Amino acid sequence: MTRRLWSAPARGADVLIRGARVVDPLAGLDETLDVLVRKGRILQVGTGLEAPTGCRTIAADGWLLLPGFVDLHTHLRTPGREDEEDLASATRAAAAGGYVAIFAMANTDPVVDTASLVQALALRAQTEAVVPVGFFAAVTRGLRGEQLTEMWELAQAGAVGFSDDGRPLSSAHLTRRALQYAKVTDRFVAVHAEDESLTRGGVMHEGAVSAKLGLGGMPPVAESIEVDRALELAAYEQGRLHLCHLSTAASLEHLERAKKAGVQVTAEVTPHHLTLTDECIRSLDPNYKMNPPLRPEADRKALAQALRSGLIDCVATDHAPHAQQEKEVPFEDAPFGTLGLQTAFAAAHQTLVASGALKLPVLAERMSQSPARIAGMAVPTVQAGEEANLCLVDPRETWTVTSAELHSKAKNSAWLGAKMKTRVKLTIAAGSVAWEDGAR
Amino acid sequence: MAKRDLISIDDLSAADVDLLLDTAESFLPVLQRDIKKVPTLRGRTVINMFFESSTRTSTSFDLAAKRLSADTIGIKAKGSAVDKGESLKDTIITLSAYSPDIIVIRHPRAGACQLASANTTASIINAGDGKHQHPSQCLLDLFTLRQAFGRNLRGLKVAIVGDILHSRVARSDIAGFQLLGMDVTVIAPPTMMPREVDSLGVNVRYDLAELHKADVIYLLRIQQERITQGANFLPSLREYANVWGVTRSRLRPGQKVMHPGPINRGVEISAAVADDPDTLIAQQVEAGLAVRMAILYRTIVGSTDSDTKEAL
Ligand SMILES: [Zn+2]
Ligand SMILES: [Zn+2]
Questions:
Q1: Homologous superfamily of A68-378 in CATH?
Q2: A209-218, A406-415, B15-24, B46-55: which range is least confident on average?
Q3: How far apart are CA B83 and CA A68, in angstroms?
C-alpha cells in the first residue's frame, strides 16, 4: 500500500488511561476498561492495569475512550491561503476535535494536480502536522473541468482519492471519464454534487426561510439530480464513487437504490447538516452560509437516520476556513463554508447521541473506522498491538466556542458562541499525544 | 460470377488466409530478384484511392500493383474531385468508367467500402476504413508471425496494447488472430477500451501486470488528439508511457514486439525497444509488400488457379 498520510515525527506516548468507557465497534468493546499505551502502541486493554514506572496515569472515570476520528473532507487552504489555515493550525484544530487523520481537498492555490505538489505537501506535513494529513488530488487540471490529471502518478505519490470539490464535475462526460480512468489507480472519485445552472445566484436552501428573507435559493434538486447522474455513471462504468456532503432526503433515495443495486459508492454527511437547519439563517449570520446549504428539519432528520442505518457511511466535516474580513460582510456576499474539525464530535454527540437519534458506537464507527476504510488507511482501533490512534472525551464538560478556543486561524465557525456539552480531553494520533486539554 | 472484395478480415476463412499467406510467401523470391517484377497482372488496372493520409499503406499497395505489372492510378483526396465536394458514390461511378479491376480504398469513415462496392464492378480492397477494419494490415501481421513462429500459430498468446477503442488494426487483428487459433488479450486504459469488448472473445486487462504471459506484444500508436481538451481519453502522453509504455524492463526475454507504425518513441514504445533488432517491426514492413501483392493477385485470379509458381 502506498503511503497516504504524513505528520511531523513526535515522541511515542506513554500513558495509562484508567477507567474510561471504551467504545470501539471494530473491537466489539463498550465497557469500562484501562488502556495502557507504551511508546505510542497500545500495549494492554484490560482492567486493574498498573502504570509501569515512568508512565503517567490519567484518571478517566466517566469519560469516553474512542477510536480516533478520520476526516475525509478538510479544506486546508494550504498552499495559497496560509492566512486562513495552514498544516499546523488545521492539525491542531483536528487534534482538539479528536481527529487522528485528516484528508485535504485539492482546491487550493495552486490546485493539487501534480505529483510534485503532493510530494511537496507531504514534506511540509512532515515538519508541521501534529496529526497525520493526507491529500486528495484534483480530477481535472487546475480544477478547470477540462483535462484529467495524471491520476496514476498522483496515486503513486500518495493521493488518497480524486476530487474537484469546491466545484462539481462540469459534465456527465467528465464524470464518466474520471470514473473510468480512476480504475487504474485503485482510488475513488469524490464528487461535490451540484447542478450549478440551478444554484446560480443562490446563497441558501430554497424554501420557507429564503422566501421570508428574500435570499436567492439553492433548490435541493440541484443536488439530487447530480447525485443521481453520478450514481448512474458509477453503475454504468463500475467505478468507485464517493459522494461528498449529502444534504437532501432526495439524494438519499438515489443512494439507497444504487447501493441496493451494488454500485461501489460511499457517502458522507457533515456535522452541520446533521445538527443545524436553515432556520439558523434567520439571524443572517454568514457563519451559517455553506454549500450545500443548511436544509430544513425533514432533511436533517433523514440524514441522521441514514447515518444511523449506514446508508451514509461517514461523517466528514467539509472544514472550510475563511478569513474574518471575508465573512464579515452581508450574508449574500459572504463565501460558503464553516469550520468543523474542532466541534464535529461535540456537535454530533450532544445533538444526536443525547437525543437518542444515534447510538454512541455507531457515531464512533461513522467518524473513525468507516472513513478510515474508505481512505484505505490503517483502521483506528483500541486493541493491544495497534498503534495508538484514539481520543478521550468528557461527555459532560460544558464549554463555549470562542475565537480563543478555536485553533484554526480562521474563526468562521457555525458554532461560534454556542454552548457545547462534550469536550475532547486527549488525542493520541499516530502514537503521539497531539492534543491534551489544559496542557499548552 | 460475383466479384471478390476484401473489406473485412471476417470475409475470409482460415483456408482463405492460409492461401493468401502461402501466395505471399511465393512472391518473396520475386522481391529478392534483380528485376523485381512479374507480368502477372499486365493489362489490369488498380486504382488506389486514399481519402486519408497514409504513407506506408498507399506506397505498399502502389508498389505491389507495379511489381505485378498492373497499371496503377493513385488518387488522393487533396486536389481531387473529392476535395471539391464530390460524393464518394459519384467518385466511384466516375472512376468505374475506366473499368478498373481493383479499387483500393482508405477512408476515414467505416462503411465507405460497402458503399463503393455497391457502385462498381471493380473489386474493392479496404486499406483502412474509419476505426473499423484494416484487413491487409492483419494479413501482413499474420504473415510476420508465421515467419517468426512457423505455420501453426494455434495457442500463441498475443497481447494487443494501446488505444483499442479507436483502432481498426486492433479490430482486424483480433478477428484474424482468433481465426488462426491464437489467444488474444487486449490491454488499454479503461477510457480506451470499447464497451463490452469481451464479447469479441478476448481477455481484457487495464494494465501491464500480466504482460509477461504474452508471446507477442502488439503495440498500437497513441495519438496526441486523444489528449486534447474535452476528449480526455488520457491525461497525458507522459502518463501513458509511465503506465502502459513498453520498455526493456517490462519485457521478458523471448517476447516479440510488433507495431503497425508509425511508432511514437517514448510513448507506447521506448526507444531501446524500438531499436531492438529482436522486434518484428521491420519484418512487418517487409511483409507488407508481398502480402499486398498476394491480395491483389488473389482478388483477380481467385483461389482456383492455385499454382502461383506458374504465374511467376
Ligand atoms: Zn463541496
Ligand atoms: Zn468541500
A1: Metal-dependent hydrolases (3.20.20.140)
A2: B46-55
A3: 70
**Taking chain A (440 residues) in consecutive chunks of 10 residues, what is each chunk's mean pLDDT?**
91 97 98 98 97 93 98 96 95 98 97 98 97 98 95 98 96 96 96 97 97 97 98 98 98 98 98 98 97 98 98 98 95 97 98 96 98 98 98 97 97 97 98 87
Q: Let me know the angle formed at the C-alpha of A393 by A16 and A47, rounded to the nearest 5 degrees.
A: 35
Q: Does A149 touch chain B (CB under 8 A)?
A: yes
For this structure, is B195 an active site residue? Answer: no
Contacts of B154 (CB under 8 A, 6+ apart): B180, B181, B182
Chain B interface mutation, best of A181, A236, A238, A264, highest count of B Cβ atoms under 10 Å: A181
Residue B229 clears pLDDT 90, i.e. is over it: no
CB atoms within 10 A of CB A392: 23
- Name the minimum distance, in Å, from the CA of B162 to any CA of chain A: 14
Half-sphere exposure of B152 (CA within 13 A, CB side): 2
> Residue B250: which CATH number?
3.40.50.1370
DSSP structure class, residue A368: I
A177 interfacial to chain B (CB closer than 8 Å): yes
Burial of residue B277 (CB within 10 Å: 0-12, 13-18, 19+) is exposed
How far, in whole angstroms, is CA B203 from its chain's centroid?
22
Using the predicted structure, report yes or no on whether residue B63 has a pLDDT greater than 70. Answer: yes
Q: Is B259 a catalytic residue?
A: no
**Contact, A76 vs A108, CB < 8 A?**
yes
DSSP 3-state of A391? strand
Q: What is the pLDDT of residues B259-291, one digit of tens each?
A: 999 999 999 999 999 999 999 999 999 999 999
Q: Which residue has 461523517 as its cell numbers?
A: A315
- Contact list, B227 vs chain A (CB under 8 Å): 147
- CA dihedral (A392, A397, A398, A401) in degrees, to 10, reads -20
Active site residue B134: yes
State whether A181 and B206 contact (CB < 8 Å): no
Domain boundaries, position B172? 135-283
Beta strand extents in B96-245 (DSSP E only): 102-107, 123-129, 157-161, 183-187, 203-205, 216-219
ipTM computed for the complex: 0.89
Of the candidates A234, A243, A232, A235, the residue with the CA atom closest to the CA atom of residue A192: A243
Catalytic residue (choose from B67, B134, B168, B298) = B134
Of all ligands present, the nearest one to the C-alpha of A199 is 1
Has residue B33 been placed in a domain?
Answer: yes
B24, B151: one domain: no
Contact (CB<8Å) B235/A148: yes
Q: Which of B190, B232, B238 sits opposite A150 (nearest CB)?
A: B238
